[in-house]
Specification:
Layout (H helix, E strand, L loop, with lengths): L1 H5 L15 H29 L25 H15 L5 H26 L8 H22 L5 E3 L7 E3 L4 H19 L7 H18 L2 H7 L10 H19 L8 H18 L3 H7 L1 H20 L9 H7 L4 H21 L5
Antiparallel strand pairs: 1-2
Helix pairs in contact: 2-3, 2-9, 3-4, 3-9, 3-10, 4-5, 4-10, 5-6, 5-10, 6-10, 6-12, 7-9, 7-10, 7-14, 10-11, 11-12
Length: about 350
Amino acid sequence: MLYYFLYPLHVKHTFFNVFKYITFRTFGASITSVLLCMLIGPSYIRLLQRKQMGQSIREDGPKTHLTKKGTPTMGGGLILLAIVLPTLLWADLTNKNIWIALVSTVLFAVVGYVDDYRKVVKKNSKGMSGKQKLACQTLIAFATAYFIYMTRETPPVLKFPFFKDWSLYLGAFFIPFATFVIVGASNAVNLTDGLDGLAVGPTITTSATFLILAYCAGHMKIAEYLQIPYIAGAGELAVFCGSVAAACLGFLWFNTYPAQVFMGDVGSLSLGAALAIVAVITKNEILLALCGGVFVMEALSVMAQVVSFKVTGKRVLKMAPIHHHFELKGWAEPKVIVRFWIISILLALITLSTLKLR
């Protein structure tokens, strides 16, 4: 919006030429997002408390979590607000990728809202049934993948990091593949959101990493130099990624241990989808699995637990997802959180290093 109204003024006032640059607008969106989140946060939390939007706690979970019962949830609404408004304010709204990312993120948030609403109002910690949630996610992800495919700006190929010439042409199969990536990432972040600030930390590092990847993919000269696919218009997603990272950073002020508010599914489902959509558009689906390794680890731990119990009748972990396993082994909650953050930072650095390893 600012780009649309202020950049044309550069003809008379050269200062407004800064709005041309994605880097400047990314910084602007990030700062706006953090400030918006931190300023509105206290009022938003009080509103949730007045509406009695308290978190239900799994009865089979760690006993230390029972003290968290009643902590306001659905804080993801604050994150969503701090993503959408700054992006609308600072991004080039003529860019199709921005609208695909924003609309899809909001739709995933709606699914999360319905799930959270059932948990809070009906006092059911399970919320929507697994089939209902998966069906809604798949429908939205499929529509998103279809629109990305139809823009013809993102090539329907799977790129392999570390190898400049390795790629797999997907053709129309790109749509179900992208659907799988988006739904998988959405649920992986959702599974990670089990401790105070646990999901927020890796989301910050992953979105910040994809800010750089999106900018490089959308810059013809940089993409050519790094020998990565050039995606016209993808650079504008840096503004979106900056808003995501900054919104999570602002939310962490209230979500850090001991949390004043939880993001709920309205936050976790939408954040996972947002990261995946950027990865799909910029052709970095494999790097998403690497950079978001903490999310992958959490999802695989649940899958391993379920398969092991059904096949052998035994559990490979004390409890899934894996962060609960470490809690039951005696790790204090802050230790689990910070160590997972450290792993996420390391994976982000490895991901960025692949830009020079082609």
